[in-house]
UniProtKB/TrEMBL annotation:
Origin: domain of life: Bacteria
Species per Swiss-Prot/TrEMBL record: Streptomyces laurentii
Alphabetized InterPro entries for the sequence: Homeodomain-like_sf, HTH_RpiR, RpiR-like, SIS_dom_sf, WH-like_DNA-bd_sf
Annotated GO biological process: carbohydrate derivative metabolic process
Protein name, per record: HTH rpiR-type domain-containing protein
């Protein structure tokens, strides 16, 4: 079990049927896990972009008498600051925060079943569309680059706009069965809309997101969370990137000719002098 602030919040939220507004509050709390025990209901409402009564109803939905009781519970469960973070500057703390995120991911992967299932779904899809817009475009592009070495038909969807649904239609006509999405905050509305459209088009949606309470969760058949770092002005995404590589490994394990394809690529690359060693 992950004992980080974000991990404890995830555990607290599990098993509760939350409304979209409540999922938004939960997502905000996970992102600001270290600060939440010290925020008023008004401050949390402002951060989540909801009303103060919504925060109160959220606390009641979790089984507390109100938000003060929820905050008291969170304060009582806050551990002392880890020794390794004491005395470090903000840049070091950001790195240490990412190390903690990777530990969280390692704990999650103790149960490999979701990743194995995702690998089977990705390997079986011909073609395999990979979606990622704005902040998540680099994650999608990196996955698609390496996936193309072992999968026969990978199609990158990293541009939004009116053509996105057309491109989803095209992969469905070509025989795709699964779409892989990388979704990171802040979540573009067109990603949420695209996933909803993909599912109505018959695609199974596998998503990598920072939290099980991300806005894309409602439109995902299988969501595997990997936390992002929030210690700097712009989020850092080491854990989602690593999870993408893990999914690549799981997919390659399901492709019987993956190794042969890699060896063929290496032979061609050597013949072309593609890389400088």
């Amino acid at each position: 079990m992950n004992d980080s602030p974000a991990g404890r919040l995830q555990t607290l939220f599990e098993g509760h049927r939350l409304t979209p507004t409540q999922r938004r509050i939960a997502h905000c709390m996970v992102r600001r896990a270290a600060d939440v025990p010290f925020l008023s209901s008004v401050e949390l409402a402002d951060l989540a972009g909801v009303s103060q009564p919504s925060v109160t109803r959220f606390a009641v939905a979790l089984g507390f008498d109100g938000y003060p009781a929820l905050r008291r519970h969170l304060r009582e469960s806050v551990p002392a600051a880890p020794e390794e973070t004491v005395g470090h500057n903000e840049y070091q703390q950001a790195v240490l925060g990412e190390i903690e995120n990777l530990r969280h991911l390692a704990d999650l992967l103790a149960d490999p079943a979701p990743v194995v299932r995702a690998g089977r779904l990705l390997a079986a899809s011909r073609p395999l569309p990979v979606l990622g817009l704005r902040a998540a475009s680099s994650q999608a592009r990196g996955f698609a680059y390496f996936a193309g070495k072992v999968h026969p038909d990978v199609r990158l969807l990293d541009e939004g706009g009116s053509m996105l649904e057309d491109r989803i239609d095209a992969v469905v006509r070509a025989g795709a069965s699964t779409l892989l999405c990388f979704a990171l905050p802040r979540h573009p509305r067109e990603v949420v809309d695209a996933l909803a459209y993909a599912r109505t088009s018959g695609l199974t949606v596998v998503t990598v997101a920072e939290s099980a309470f991300a806005p894309v969760a409602a439109h995902s058949d299988l969501l595997i969370p990997a936390p992002v770092g929030t210690g700097l002005a712009f989020d850092t995404a080491c854990a989602p990137m690593l999870l993408g590589r893990v999914l690549l490994e799981a997919m390659a394990d399901e492709l019987p000719d993956a190794q042969a394809r890699l060896e063929e690529f290496d032979t061609r690359a050597a013949t072309r002098g593609l890389f400088v060693d």
